[in-house]
Write a structure and sequence with these properties.
The protein is built from 1 helix and 3 strands, in the order βββα. By secondary structure, the chain is α+β, with helices and mostly antiparallel strands. The longest helix is centred in the last third of the chain and has 12 residues. The model has no long low-confidence stretch (mean pLDDT 94).
Length: 52
Amino acid sequence: MILPPHVLRWLNGLCYWVLLSSDGSNCVCQSEFGFETEAQAKADFVWRFAIR
């Protein structure tokens, strides 16, 4: 499984995934909703963007 460049960010007690540009310098999009754990945010990111 290949994942595009991304990071997980915390804001106000919730974790959001952020999809980065191919060079990793710009935000392309981010999750609309925050997650209670990094594992939940990561699972949502993988579900949306994993290249199988």
